Amino acid sequence: MKPGKMHFSFLPSLFLPILPLLIGPAWSDLPLITNCTLYDTGVLGVAPNQTFLSSPGIVAPRLCVETFDKHAVDKTPFLFFNYIFEGVSTPMILRSDDLSLVYADFESGFPIVSGAQIQNVAGEDSLTFYQGVRERTYGNGVGMVLDKSYGIRYEVLPIDAETDRGVDEHEFWATEEGSVIVEVYETVEGVNLTSVGGPEVGKIVDSTFQEINPATGEKLFEWRARDHFDIGDGYFVWNEERDAELGFEGFHMNSVSKVDGNYLISSRHFSLIALLDGTTGEIIWVMGGKLNDFQDVSPEGTALNFAFQHQARIHAGDQLTLFDNHQLANARGCTVNCSRAMRLQLDEEAMTVDLVSEYFHPAGLGSIAMGSHEELESGNVLVSWGSNPTITEHKESGEAVMDIRLEPLTGSMRAFYGGNGPYRAFKMDWEGTPSWAPGIAVEGDHVYVSWNGATEVDRWAVMTSDDPDGPPFLPFVRGNKNAGS
Ligand SMILES: *[C@@H]1O[C@H](CO)[C@@H](O)[C@H](O)[C@H]1NC(C)=O
Ligand SMILES: *[C@@H]1O[C@H](CO)[C@@H](O)[C@H](O)[C@H]1NC(C)=O
Ligand SMILES: *[C@@H]1O[C@H](CO)[C@@H](O)[C@H](O)[C@H]1NC(C)=O
Ligand SMILES: *[C@@H]1O[C@H](CO)[C@@H](O)[C@H](O)[C@H]1NC(C)=O
Q: Hey, what's the signal peptide range on this chain (predicted)?
């Protein structure tokens, strides 16, 4: 099936005795780049990358590392994000401790991948992600659920939606009950758009979501923004050139999750987070935006002024986390009202919100689109800066202990239209046991080996024989996959 996924090259001569090889250093991937000023000039390419002799077709980003404190970063073993190279996108897994490539799949030829992460789907840890095309700012594709051997468990499509479109790229959430939640963007005609400066009879692209049992294909719940929100309560106004043909995208929902039987959603264009009744779909409360129900009790009144935000999640203890884009610019060097990852304290009785913590990018970034916020076990926070191709990790104090770029930080929109904006990033544990063999290549007196997404391999042995049909000799070279970098 899929080609080699983990990369390990072994440079010392094959004719060296075994023992020194066991303890000597092994060479693996190209070294990480540390001069990000040089990197950002673009001399290494718009997408600095490396390829592998033992895994033809696989491309890995050459990361620029602004900060990487090996001792302070969270020890969760793998880093997940979506990667794209020359029009082919893949879920990507790196080792957290040395940032080397573990898994990529360029063979499937996915146009856009987003949200790659491990979720427990119906009792089994699975690699889940969106794959499909991007139409303007929403997706038309499939929700993928892969098993430990990277085989397809489920491919989730909308059930009887009012559109031919597939699922959207923004969310793919596995519930505790074994179901999954997907978003679907529906085009609706005949909508009165005078409240946003549009025609009396116009077209919208509405946000909807469905909860589905992936094993039976049963639709368990469905919700449409147009049934509960007035189009005029958002921040976007009609733009003839942008909206007349394709429709006005007023709501733009970008996250949905299920919490205690209810649904938590985030609308970018309404700049609000809302809790919906899990049975009726009715709005229980709204936080932020024009319809806000809460009082901001933070010292500087900065708990509720989030805007165009992403990935709202409720945690135990009534805390809510999100990525606050805050502005419609891809700015660098921002000092006020920049993008941030935020943690809020809710009081649903008093209807108050306080700011617990906020995390800014060390380079003062404003991210126009995308982004994520993950709370790690150590208390650290992992942040994807979305349309700025960078991922950071912060201590509770806010200090960045990791700051890496997937490609030059130019402030352009390349990261959204064909470049590397990590829509979301996650650090997670994973046990990958691929069905395919490792890749191997011999060049001169060097043997190169790739690991194929296998996470449990500790040692390997290279066998040799003089006779192509004969039995292999005893291993004469051994390597430890952890010996590199
Ligand atoms: C990094 O690259 C820049 C631009 O090429 C160069 O001016 C600078 O000297 C380099 N810094 C280091 C530490 O090598
Ligand atoms: C990929 O890497 C090669 C070799 O370093 C470089 O020449 C090329 O420009 C890179 N591709 C992109 C799209 O940046
Ligand atoms: C559209 O909405 C506006 C403002 O609410 C209202 O005045 C107008 O009559 C509506 N048009 C139609 C065709 O319903
Ligand atoms: C920061 O954002 C607030 C609203 O969220 C706005 O009132 C204020 O003017 C902004 N400050 C600057 C310097 O842009």
A: 1-28
Q: Which of 296, 336, 342 to mutate to test the pocket of ligand 4 (most atoms within 8 A of CB)?
A: 336
Q: What are the residues whose beta carbons fall under 8 Å from the beta carbon of 231, sequence distance 6 or more?
A: 191, 193, 195, 196, 204, 248, 250, 251
Distance CA 346, CA 298 (A): 11
Determine the Cα–Cα distance for residues 279 and 137; give it in Å rounded to an integer. Answer: 29
- Residue 200 near ligand 3, beta carbon < 6 Å: yes
Encoding tokens for residue 161? Answer: 């939606």
Closest atom, ligand 2, to C-alpha of 407: 14
- The per-residue pLDDT for 19 is 27
DSSP string, 251-269: --EEEEEEETTEEEEEETT
Please tell me the number of the ligand nearest to residue 190's CA: 3
The series of mean pLDDT values per 10 residues for the chain, 485 residues long, is: 37 25 46 96 95 91 97 98 96 95 96 98 97 96 98 98 97 97 98 98 98 97 98 97 96 97 98 98 98 98 98 95 96 92 98 98 96 98 97 97 96 82 96 92 84 82 77 57 35
- Residues in contact with 23: Cβ distance below 8 Å, sequence separation at least 6, in sequence order: none
**CA distances to 84, 107, 180, 455 from 143, in Å:** 18, 18, 9, 24
Which pLDDT score is estimated for 221? 98
Query: Given this model, what pLDDT does residue 475 score?
Result: 56
Q: Which residues are paired to 480 by β-bridges? A: 459
Q: What are the E-state strand segments in 330-462?
A: 340-347, 352-360, 372-375, 381-384, 390-394, 400-405, 426-428, 439-443, 446-450, 459-462
The pLDDT, as a whole number, for residue 21 is 32
Question: How distant is the alpha carbon of residue 413 from its chain centre?
Answer: 17
Task: Looking at the CA of 337, name the nearest ligand.
Answer: 4
Alpha carbon of residue 284 to chain centroid: 29
302 lines ligand 4 (CB under 6 A): no
Quick check: CB of 192 below 6 Å from ligand 3? yes
Closest ligand to C-alpha of residue 419 is 2
Q: How far is the CA of 37 from the centre of ligand 1 (A)?
A: 6
Q: Would you say the CB of residue 42 lies under 6 angstroms from ligand 2?
A: no
- Does residue 336 line the site of ligand 4, with CB under 6 A? yes
Relative to beta strand 400-405, strand 101-103 is: unpaired
- What is the per-residue pLDDT for 18? 27
